[in-house]
Amino acid sequence: MLDNLQIRLPAIAISAHDIDRLRHLAEAAMEKHPTTAEFLAREIDRAEIIPADRSVIDDISGLRRKVNLVTMQSEVTFVDDISGEKRKVVLVYPEDADVDAGKISILTPVGAALIGLSTGQSIEFQTPSGGWRSLTVIAVWSHWPMPDCK
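RE: above sequence
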């Protein structure tokens, strides 16, 4: 099954709110985590940058919003297309990572792969060990407070 994977990169978008910090993080991590930092940098370079105030809301539920775009601090449900395993994680900056709590760092291969994807999109990528993974986003939730509506 792994031999059948072909690199197909889906269109992605990253919020202007996140982009500068992500660029800085990728540059700073080049020495310690070169493979993942390079992967993140490539994702940033190919992403459409959307204004921070552009709405990606599909549905509203209190302070937790169902959205269509994986951003930093998003809760993401995805399936590993190879193993069939379904996971729910929160995408965080490295200092907030806690695997036991389901908080994965953007500086992990899975974190770098998820950023900018939309619900229903899949991405195939090579891991630092040389293996291949394919993930599909099932749902995305944001825990950001609602903006003031005027």
